[in-house]
Amino acid sequence: MDRAATADRIAALIAPFNKKGVAITDATTFAGDLEFDSLTVMDFVAAIEDEFDIIISMNQQAEIETYGQLVDAVVKLQG
Amino acid sequence: MTDLFSKFDALIAQREGLLATGVTDPFGLVMERVISPTVAVCNGRETILLGTYNYMGMTFDPDVIAAGKQALDDFGSGTTGSRVLNGTYAGHRAVEDALKEFYGMDHAMVFSTGYQANLGIISTIAGKGDYIVLDIDSHASIWDGCKMGDAEVVPFKHNDIVAMEKRLKRIPEGAGKLVILEGVYSMLGDIAPLKEMIAVARENGAMVLVDEAHSMGFIGPNGRGVAEEQGVLDQVDFVIGTFSKSVGTVGGFCVSNHPKFEIMRLVCRPYVFTASLPPSVVATAATSIRKLMHGADKRAHLWENSRTLHKGLKDLGFQLGTDEPQSAIISVIMPDLERGAGMWEALLHEGLYVNLARPPATPAGMTLLRCSLCAEHTAEQVQTIIGMFARAGKAAGIL
């Protein structure tokens, strides 16, 4: 799957977690802009993992701060 | 110069705000005198203890105390050495023998605390390229063990068998897998469906570590924990436990049937690079563990206490962590930290000590009043406790 198609699917998944309706770009940060707490992160990561049938370990999550980094990581994890 | 403490400013402000309301500092309590496993003098007042992990009430057992005094006389106050150098005395071997007998397992390794047992075993056995799959509500010592090692860490939703299975199935072929579960989760006092979870873990080729810190001594026919209660102890590769709860002193351990287990003594850094437990501590632990093997009557009374308190608090209208009592921990859910602290203080004024638990220790950002029962609480004390909750609940505006 190419980056655009992956990004579209992630965009659909993030909507229910984007409570404030923040406009999302590749530079949007999860902790800062979207104000995700640790519980939201767990639920959101689980949704992404199930959608793409991948594992995003906590070690990998530590490297992902922005939406763009997440999309890149999911593209890479799908191989 | 950047003040390295500025990262704590938000917490400092929250704490100051709370204390400004005039509430007693819940984290500054001092027990001036301890009268028994269930009563102490706190702030000059005789107080019933309902917030210790002294589940089996062994701290004042005469045989336990005598063993400790004897060891002080015979072996001195401390070992001043690591277990692998000059820190293994006869008592350390004796307590490991007692553990092997208690659990019916081939190997036992004693650490200086339960925290270090998790830290050491987890960080040592799961290394680079291995995967740890663990419950999101795991104890801090488990998380810290994960952080100290180099394995990939994959959490799943609390007690969610399907979420765990999905993650196990996605792990690359050939990678080592360790599933970490707890028998009793200490914040809400709920137990894990170990039978189902361990079956799934094994089907997927994972080794299994179960922390039974809050179940040892009273859950299971022989007090070996939730895995024994559910008939799957033989499917567990590593049981982690502690001396600081039912055993009534301090220390931690791992028991295992793994044929190569003894190598841990040379490769596990939190075991090697720290001083061993004092002789008096291992002597009290060994005596206590052997007495716990014959604690069936006490176990029955503790369960009765747990059921009575759970029903009493539920009938009063408190929101509890579990629908049914599952352990010796009954957790009362508070609406927020401010009212939780108010209720905690109202209970202290009644002469009752419980634990105020708050994030990050608690799941889902909850504030909890955590009650843990002791086999030495009398039926009358439990009724007194329920009366205190009724009055404090009204005084604090919770009921």
Give structural notes.
The complex is a heterodimer of chains A (79) and B (399). With 79 residues, chain A is mainly alpha-helical. Chain A has one domain: ACP-like (Non-ribosomal Peptide Synthetase Peptidyl Carrier Protein, Chain A, Orthogonal Bundle), CATH 1.10.1200.10. Helices cover 53% and strands 0% of the residues of chain A. The mean pLDDT of chain A is 92. Chain B is α/β, with parallel strands linked by helices and 399 residues long. Chain B folds into 2 domains: 22-56 and 295-395, Aspartate Aminotransferase, domain 1 (Alpha-Beta Complex); 62-292, 3-Layer(aba) Sandwich (Aspartate Aminotransferase, domain 2), CATH 3.40.640.10. In chain B, strand 2 (39-42) and strand 3 (45-49) form a beta hairpin. Chain B is globular, with a radius of gyration of 21 Å. The relative contact order of chain B is 0.16. The mean pLDDT of chain B is 96. The chains are: A mainly alpha (79), B alpha/beta (399). At the A-B interface, helix 2 and helix 3 of A face strand 6 and helix 6 of B.
Structural topology:
The complex is a heterodimer of chains A (79) and B (399).
Chain A: H1 3-14, H2 38-52, H3 58-61, H4 67-77
Chain B: H1 9-20, E1 31-36, E2 39-42, E3 45-49, H2 62-75, H3 90-103, E4 107-111, H4 114-125, E5 131-135, H5 140-148, E6 152-156, H6 161-170, E7 177-182, E8 184-185, E9 190-191, H7 194-203, E10 207-211, H8 226-229, E11 238-242, E12 252-256, H9 264-267, H10 269-272, H11 279-292, H12 296-316, E13 329-334, H13 337-350, E14 352-353, E15 355-357, E16 367-372, H14 379-395
Parallel strand pairs in B: 3-14, 5-6, 5-7, 7-10, 10-11
Antiparallel strand pairs in B: 1-2, 2-3, 4-12, 8-9, 11-12, 13-16, 15-16
Keywords (chain B): Aminotransferase, Pyridoxal phosphate, Transferase
Cofactor (chain B): pyridoxal 5'-phosphate
Domain Aminotransferase class I/classII large (chain B): 47-386
